[in-house]
Amino acid sequence: MNTTFNKHGLTLAMMAALSAPALADTPTPATETQQQPNVLFIFVDDIGYADMGFQNQSQDIVTPHMDKIAAEGAIFSAGYVTASVCGPSRAGLLTGRYQQRYGYHDNTAPFIKEPGIVQGLDLNAKTIGNYFSDAGYVTGFIGKSHDGDAKEYWPHNRGWDEFYGFNNGAADYFVSGFNTMNAEERTFSSIHRNDELVEDFDGYLTDIFGDEAVNFIERHKDKPFFLYVPFNASHGPMQAKKEDLEKFSYIDDELRRKMIAMTYNMDLNIGKMVDKLEEHDLMENTMIIFMSDNGGRPDDNGSVNTPLNGRKGTYWEGGIRVPTTITWRGTIPAEQVIDTPMISLDILPTTLAMAGIEQQEEWQLEGENLLPLLKGEVTDIDERFLYWKTINASAIRDNDWKLFIPNTLVKRPKPQLYKISEDISESNDIAHKHPEQVARLLAELERWDADNQEPKWGWNRQLFPHANGWRGRN
Questions:
Q1: Is pLDDT above 70 for 73?
Q2: Which InterPro entries would you find in this protein's record (predicted)?
């Protein structure tokens, strides 16, 4: 439902203080008199549920630009992604379909199910880039790609007109001399512009991605564009700029200080993008979306998932429930907090509707168009189930209930049941009190899973017996 306050701590008092005055397969072509609206989609890495100021959970986080953007639109208190780690989460987001439909259950891994399997997002699957490019949009991808090593899987071969970034789970943030190193010296990934290796340059990678995004907006301001900016902040390696670390020198915990400094720098770069949109009077013609690819992992990058249980890599809420906000000045009313559960699969149908692109049944998209909810035309959407599954765990939720099976590899896995609409912290397992809900949700999870492909790769040699040439990390 659409509310003006949220019992989980997401309040509008903070938002109001930050908000500016009210600003208020046949695609539909753009016209000369009214350009189709743009999309700026910011997808960040390993940011915990509490790690943005607009969540109103952590007192130490400083993200003024995203807080202002969120205050001008809608915050989803129950925003989910389709996986608790990078690769499959991105695959679900980019295709608008559960990645398990393609056998993509986990990050690329050392072992494969059978010889000949190439790890990556099914090449027959269309991406957001394909859908919008086909509709006449200029499509840009700036940042982290993690859905297949071979070049045919890279963004510029998957519907994106322009790709600038790296193809791996992580990259160094300080890049001076980076691309001229020998492969043995390089810690993580090289930077490419489409197929071309970017020559040596100086800079901090988050700043470089921010500048590239600003440049993209400047070059394509007169055309409808879909700009996807998957920052690698605040994923490890934990490397922050000296001046940003000094700003937060009062934070004693070194890991947390680095995380906050890296996130602050990312926020500054988001501010540069918004400034460029403002400069060209594009804010009222641009939808801005912000999500994290999964929850935080506190012991790895100093993130905080309060008040959620669990972390990245689990199907507790802390692994899959993420900061989420959508803004479209003048079209989406400001200062909203929406409690209706949404999932990253909804981004594609929502942006297609925004652009006036008719969704085709054969696309088999599995998300919902959220525009009527965002615009206040409805107070809720039809109740539905959300699903999660990997080789050793699964979960399902509807508006009120969540069933979590933490270990599906044992003979008799023990489901856990939570009234998630009232117990956001998953503190009270009530499976023994509501066996009828357990049975109902298990039956629905099995029905959904019947249309999935088996996992094609993984980390357990017994389950995936064939070795595979593998590189990278989560």
A1: yes
A2: Alkaline_phosphatase_core_sf, Sulfatase, Sulfatase_CS, Sulfatase_N
3-state secondary structure of 469: coil
Can you give the residue range of the structural domain that contains 422? Answer: 392-454
Query: How confident is the prediction for the chain on average, in pLDDT?
Result: 90
Q: Both tokens of residue 102?
A: 């393609």
357: phi > 0 → left, psi -120 to 50 → alpha, else beta; which? beta
Least confident of 57-71, 417-431, 454-468: 454-468
Structure token digits, residue 377 = 């035309």
Quick count: other Cβ atoms within 10 Å of Cβ 153? Answer: 19
Tell me the sheet residues that pair with 197. Answer: 192
Q: Does residue 148 surpass a pLDDT of 70?
A: yes
Neighbours of 264 (CB within 10 A): 22
Token output for 25: 């397969």
Q: Tokens for 177, please give them.
A: 């001399």
Angle between helices 205-219 and 254-279 (to 10 degrees): 10
Lowest mean pLDDT among 68-77, 132-141, 196-205, 411-420: 196-205
pLDDT at 1: 55
CATH number for 331: 3.40.720.10
Distance CA 299, CA 468 (A): 29
Alpha helix positions (H), 165-253 = 205-219, 242-247
Distance, in Å, from the CA atom of 337 to the CA atom of 325, rounded to the nearest integer, reads: 9
* Coil vs helix vs strand at 229: strand
Name the residue with tokens 């856990």: 416
Contact 381, 368 (CB under 8 A): yes
Same domain, 95 and 43: yes
Kindly report which listed range (69-73, 140-144, 320-324, 408-412) carries the lowest average pLDDT score. Answer: 408-412
Same domain, 289 and 408: no
In whole angstroms, what is the distance from residue 317 CA to residue 349 CA? 24
Q: Are the C-beta atoms of 388 and 395 separated by less than 8 Å?
A: yes
Indicate if 271 and 231 belong to the same structural domain. yes
Domain total in the chain: 2
- CB-based contacts of 219, cutoff 8 Å, min separation 6: none
